């Protein structure tokens, strides 16, 4: 259980922060950039929820919770010491990836195939989901880069990869099942 009784600690005033294992690192470290961008993505999902209802809102809520799990996973670098930890660290699981895939497949079944690239926009929810998509892609790029330097849970990378796909398909659902997608017209303004 988390208890936050004091919000500022002043321990980061010199440009460092603590990871989940207690190690102190620079706030601009690759790991902090990765999980910080996951947090940024989570905030955009919160904005998208302002426009969502029903099943879409339920799915977005689950994603927000997953993104907190993902941040917890990324802030704990020493995966090889998980078994020795006093409390088992929270790690992303393949079942979370599987759930996203099932939701993507279910949403995609309601859509006609694309015959053009689409521009981000349309309904307010679709536009917000495109923001979620692009920030999730940035989080994925940073996490993949981190994985070239340090140990990263493969399920974390897979989740981020599926998440941006989920956002794309969900944006089409939010655009009247794709009927109101804004299509790209190559060279339209030449």
TrEMBL record:
Segments traversing the membrane: none
Gene3D superfamilies: Cobalamin adenosyltransferase-like
Superkingdom of this protein's organism: Bacteria
InterPro entries, sorted: CblAdoTrfase-like, CblAdoTrfase-like_sf, PduO-typ
Record's subcellular location: Cytoplasm
Key word Transferase present: yes
GO annotations of cellular component type: cytoplasm
Pathway connected to this protein: Cofactor biosynthesis; adenosylcobalamin biosynthesis; adenosylcobalamin from cob(II)yrinate a,c-diamide: step 2/7
Keyword annotations of the record: ATP-binding, Cobalamin biosynthesis, Cytoplasm, Nucleotide-binding, Transferase
Known catalytic reactions: 2 cob(II)alamin + reduced [electron-transfer flavoprotein] + 2 ATP = 2 adenosylcob(III)alamin + 2 triphosphate + oxidized [electron-transfer flavoprotein] + 3 H(+); 2 cob(II)yrinate a,c diamide + reduced [electron-transfer flavoprotein] + 2 ATP = 2 adenosylcob(III)yrinate a,c-diamide + 2 triphosphate + oxidized [electron-transfer flavoprotein] + 3 H(+)
A GO biological process held by the record: cobalamin biosynthetic process
Top enzyme class: transferase
Keyword Acyltransferase: no
EC code(s) of this entry: 2.5.1.17
SUPFAM superfamilies: Cobalamin adenosyltransferase-like
Domain Cobalamin adenosyltransferase-like: 7-173
GO molecular function, one term: corrinoid adenosyltransferase activity
PANTHER family: CORRINOID ADENOSYLTRANSFERASE (PTHR12213), CORRINOID ADENOSYLTRANSFERASE MMAB (PTHR12213:SF0)
Family: Belongs to the Cob(I)alamin adenosyltransferase family.
Matching NCBIfam families: PduO_Nterm
The protein, known as: Corrinoid adenosyltransferase
Organism: Litoreibacter roseus
Phylogenetic classification of the source organism: Bacteria, Pseudomonadati, Pseudomonadota, Alphaproteobacteria, Rhodobacterales
């Amino acid at each position: 259980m988390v208890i936050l009784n004091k919000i500022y600690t002043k321990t980061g005033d010199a440009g460092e922060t603590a990871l989940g294992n207690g190690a102190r690192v620079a706030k601009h470290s690759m790991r902090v950039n990765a999980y910080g961008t996951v947090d940024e993505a989570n905030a955009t999902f919160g904005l998208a929820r302002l426009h969502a209802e029903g099943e879409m809102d339920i799915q977005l809520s689950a994603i927000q919770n997953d993104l907190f799990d993902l941040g917890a996973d990324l802030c704990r670098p020493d995966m090889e010491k998980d078994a020795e930890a006093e409390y088992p660290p929270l790690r992303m699981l393949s079942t979370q990836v599987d759930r996203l895939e099932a939701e993507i497949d279910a949403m995609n079944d309601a859509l006609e195939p694309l015959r053009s690239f689409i521009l981000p926009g349309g309904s307010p929810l679709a536009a917000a989901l495109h923001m979620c998509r692009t920030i999730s892609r940035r989080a994925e790029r940073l996490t993949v880069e981190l994985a070239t330097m340090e140990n990263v849970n493969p399920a974390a990378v897979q989740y981020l990869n599926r998440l941006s796909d989920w956002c794309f398909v969900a944006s089409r659902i939010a655009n009247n099942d794709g009927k109101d997608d804004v299509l790209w017209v190559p060279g339209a303004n030449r």
